[in-house]
Design brief:
The chain is α+β, with helices and mostly antiparallel strands. The protein contains seven helices and ten strands.
Length: 262
Amino acid sequence: MPFVVRDDAGSEFTVETVSENSSHLAAMLRLDSLGYPAFLSGNEATIRYWGDLFELAPDLQFVLLDGQAGHVLACGHAVPYVWNREPKRLPSGWDQALELGIAGIRSGVAPTAVTALSIVVDPSARGRSLSAVTLHAMRRLVAAAGLRDLIAPVRPTLKCRYPLTAMDDYARWRTHEGRMFDPWLRQHERLGAVCLGVAPRSMVVRASVELWEQWTSLAMPRRGSYVVEGALVPVDVADSGIGTYIEPNVWMHHDLPTEEST
C-alpha cells in the first residue's frame, strides 16, 4: 500500500512501488538515465540485470511523488540479498550485489537483507533534500518487508572532485563537527548507518576507447590513465585500446529499528 513520508519541514510525499503502480515505470527509467555519468551505462551488471529488477523485485522499485500534484520527484531501486551481518561476507560491491540478488530471487532463496542500488532525484527537484527523504522511504520499505538490514554500496557525491584520492582515505575525511565529509555518506550516517568499509571493485566498466570518447567527449589518444568528468577514479586505457574503469564504493549499513515500518 502507498504510504506518506515527510521532509524536515513537514512537506508530505507519497511513496508508490512498481508492484502498486507500474505506470511510473517510464518516469523511473527517465530518471535512471539522468542520474549517473553516461559511461556507467556500459557496466555489464547493469546491462544484464537491471531490467530484471522491475519484474522480479517490484516491491523494492519505487517513486517519490509530490504530495499535491502527484509528479514523480525521485526514484529508488534495491534488491533483496542474503547476508549474515558479517562485513567480510558482503558482496564485492554493487555489481555482485545486483547479480547475486537477482540469482537469489530466481532460485527462491529467502532474503535476509536488502541492498540499496540507486536513488535518483529529478534535476528540477534537487536542492530540497529529497535524496534523504527517498532513503528514508527505502528504509520503510525494507522494514515493512520484515527485514532488519539495509546495506548500501554508496557512490559518494563529491568523490569525483578528488579522483586521485584513495577511497579509503576519502571515506575517513570528516567535517569540523566530526561527521562524514561527503554529503551523501553523511545523509546515510544521519539516519543511523555505519560505515563497514570500502568496496574497491564495486562497479566495473570495460569498453573500447571509441566508446569512452563518446561517453566523455575526451580524446584518449594513447595508453595511460585519464581523469574524466563524473568518475570517482581515473580510467585506465591499455595498448589494446580497451579502457577500464574500476569504481570503489563505500559500504554503509542501516540496522533498522522495528518502528521504522510505522
